[in-house]
Design brief:
The protein is an alpha+beta fold. It is 25% helix and 28% strand. α2 runs antiparallel to α3.
Length: 332
């Protein structure tokens, strides 16, 4: 068939083909938008009940926020009556995150078990209505003792534990605290084992690790460790959470020491936490009408190490710390 030429050198049949190509391009672009839109919706839609997951303990939004937020689809697996795993799935490689929630029966000394304190100066601390501690990697809260039957394990103290699983994976510390304070009464209600406490829950954040004033250790007037230093002469650093009137937790570390704190100290006045020291040899006092415990968890040093570090042995350390803290609080 003969082609009709246009003055600018084109042909009569060329324009329709250009229009067809333009239409095809628009259609492809629209299809891409639809596909991307569908993917975005899929990964941002909770396929579960949008109200509660994990036996009713939490919500998809709370769990996703504790994992750090971002784009993802939330799903949950109730592995047993006392456990649950939350997963936030993303189409981006390596972006899947998981959060484990467990009701566990711990020993009566928890959270101040010897050599394994779960509350200290490097974590956020909850007190008042709910007691617990947390950071960006997880945390725990005390459950009412009546919830023992709702927890796994042989211990008598029921505890709710949250943990971000996966190597070197962190969540969001503030959101982790919100999840724990919300999930604790929800678990109690779902298991019919307790009522929410009347008191409001307060949160104290840890300070930065800073060189310690050895004439005012942990910020406590009169608490002196004048010659304390690391085995290689390192200075002592301190991290502190809370305050003396509310409850104070302090970690002392030799700067750069990979073993972590050589001393964890606590001034404990929350009744639920004081109860964990029942029957233990700790310093006690009546402070502002409340029983208060002064406790420490010290690393063992042999005589040669003690001669270099100048850290007092446990009895002397306890006396120096307890006397200073009681005086600062003006305890009776």
């Amino acid at each position: 068939m003969e082609k009709t030429h246009h003055p600018e050198g084109g042909t009569a049949g060329a324009a329709p083909r250009r229009r067809s190509r333009r239409k095809a391009g628009v259609a492809v672009a629209a299809a891409v938008v639809v596909v991307l839109g569908g993917t975005f919706t899929y990964f941002n839609t909770n396929v579960l009940d949008s109200d509660r997951i994990c036996h009713g303990w939490t919500t998809p939004d709370e769990a996703a926020a504790a994992l750090g937020g971002g784009i993802g689809r939330v799903s949950a697996s109730e592995d047993s009556d006392a456990t649950c795993t939350v997963r936030v799935s993303s189409w981006l490689p390596g972006q899947d995150k998981r959060l484990s929630l467990r009701a566990v029966g711990e020993e009566t000394e928890f959270p101040f078990s010897r050599g394994d304190w779960q509350i200290s100066g490097d974590r956020h601390v909850l007190s008042g209505g709910t007691q617990g501690a947390f950071d960006a990697y997880g945390g725990w809260t005390l459950l009412p003792t009546a919830c023992r039957n709702a927890a796994d394990g042989s211990g008598t103290q029921p505890v709710l534990r949250a943990a971000v699983t996966g190597r070197d994976t962190a969540g969001d510390a503030d959101a982790m605290g919100r999840l724990l304070t919300s999930a604790t009464p929800a678990l109690s209600a779902a298991s019919y084992c307790g009522e929410p406490a009347d008191a409001d829950t307060t949160t104290d954040a840890p300070s930065a690790a800073e060189p310690s004033d050895l004439d005012r250790v942990c910020g406590i007037s009169g608490f002196r460790l004048p010659r304390a230093q690391g085995p290689k002469g390192q200075q002592v650093t301190a991290e502190v959470t809370g305050s003396l009137p509310k409850g104070l937790y302090c970690d002392l570390t030799f700067e750069g020491d990979k073993e972590g704190p050589f001393a964890r100290l606590a001034v404990v006045s929350d009744p639920a936490l004081v109860a964990s020291f029942k029957g233990r040899d700790v310093t006690r006092a009546e402070c502002d009408g409340r029983e208060t415990v002064f406790a420490q968890d010290l690393r063992y040093f042999d005589d040669s190490e003690r001669a270099v570090t100048h850290v007092p042995a446990a009895p002397e350390f306890s006396e120096v710390f307890g006397d200073a803290a009681r005086a600062a609080l003006q305890c009776g």
